[in-house]
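Page 42, continued from yesterday. The earlier attempt failed because a stray header line got pasted into the input along with the sequence. Redoing it now with the clean sequence only.
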Amino acid sequence: MPPVSVSDYRELARRRLPPMFFEYIDGGSYAEVTLKRNVEDLEAIALRQRVMRDMTSINTSVQAVGQTLAMPLGLSPVGMAGMYARRGETQAARAAAQAGIPFCLSTVGVCSVEEVAATGTAPWFQLYMLKDRGYMRSLLERAKAAGCPVLVFTVDLPLPGSRYRDVRSGFTGATGLSGALNTGWQGATHLEWFWDVYVNGQPHTLGNVQDAVQGGRRVNDFLSWIARNFDRSVTWADLDFVREIWDGPIIIKGVLDPEDARDAVKAGAQGLIVSNHGGRQLDGVKSSIAALPRIADAVGDDLEVFLDGGVRSGLDVLKALALGARACFVGRPWAYALGAGGEKMISRMLGTLKNELVTAMILTGCNDVRRADKALLDAGL
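This time it went through. C-alpha cells are written below.
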C-alpha cells in the first residue's frame, strides 16, 4: 500500500530502519507526556467549516525572514539524518528546494553545511551555544561562507533530556562488545538500510564537527563531544557573541514562555520558533500549540513567530496559522519519510501536506494563508 499520511511513512521507516535509529527519531524524553501532547492538542482543535464561498483562487505562499515560501512550512533540524538514508541531509535539502520551502541543517547532521550547500540551495543553519566558542565561531563562519541565509539558534538544550528509548534500543549506554554486537545485529537484520547507508553512505561522522574530534570515526564519538560542549551558563547576553560573527537573520528556537519571547525581542532576534524540542527535552511541559497564542500576543509584530512540534498534516498547519504562527516546521514527518525511502518519499510527503492544507483552506473559506486567523476555528469546542 502506498503511503498517504505521516503515520504511513512512520510505519515504513519502522520496518526499514534498525531499531536504534527508528527509536531515536520516534522517541521523546522520560514518559513522553509532552511528545503525546504535541500531537493530541493539535488534534483537539476544531476547524470551522464554511460553505458557498468562491475558492477558485488559493494562495499558500508566505513571506518569512525576507524569503518567499511556496507554503507555510519548513523542515526542522533533525540530527543524524544521514543515518536514515544515504547522505540524508542532502536528499532532504533537494526535496525542500523542489517544494519551495527551507531546509534547516542540524549542527549534528551527518552531512556538513558545505556538502548540503553543494546541492544548489544553501540551508538555514541550526546551532547551539557551545562551550568551545572558538569552534562555534568557526561553524558560524563556515555557514556564512556556504551562503546560509538564516541562523536558527536553539536555546532549549543546555543539557540533553533523558531519552529512555535510546537506552533500551542500545543507541546510548551500550558500549564494548555488547554494544558492537547489538549494532551489528541491527544492521545485519535490515539489509536494505545496511546496503544504502552503512555500505554506501559513508563517512558516518558528523560533518559540521568532524574537525573538532581528532580520531573520531563513529557517530557516537562526535555526539559525546557535542554532549560535553552544551553550555549551561548561557544567557541572552551571549547572543552578542553570535551577532559579532553573524550579520544575517537569527531565529530563536525553543521558546515556550511569553517572557522568554519578549526577551528574544530585546535581544534583537528576527523570529522565534515556539518549540519544546519535539518533546525530547523537559517532559511534562505544555504542547507547542498550547503555548503559541500567548507568545504570538506577547510579541505582536516585533518578530516573526513559527511553530514546531506535533504537526502531522496540512490541517494542523492551518490550525497553527490561525493561532498566530507565520509558518510551521516539521521534524519527525520528514525524518520518517527519509527513512521510508529517501528524497522521493520526502517530496511525496510534502505534496500530501500541501494538498491537505489546500483542502482545509477551501473548506474553511480561507483563500489566502496570510489572512488565516482565529475565525477559522470553532470557538464552541
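Notes: The two ends are 35 Å apart (CA to CA).
Reminder to self: strip header lines before submitting.
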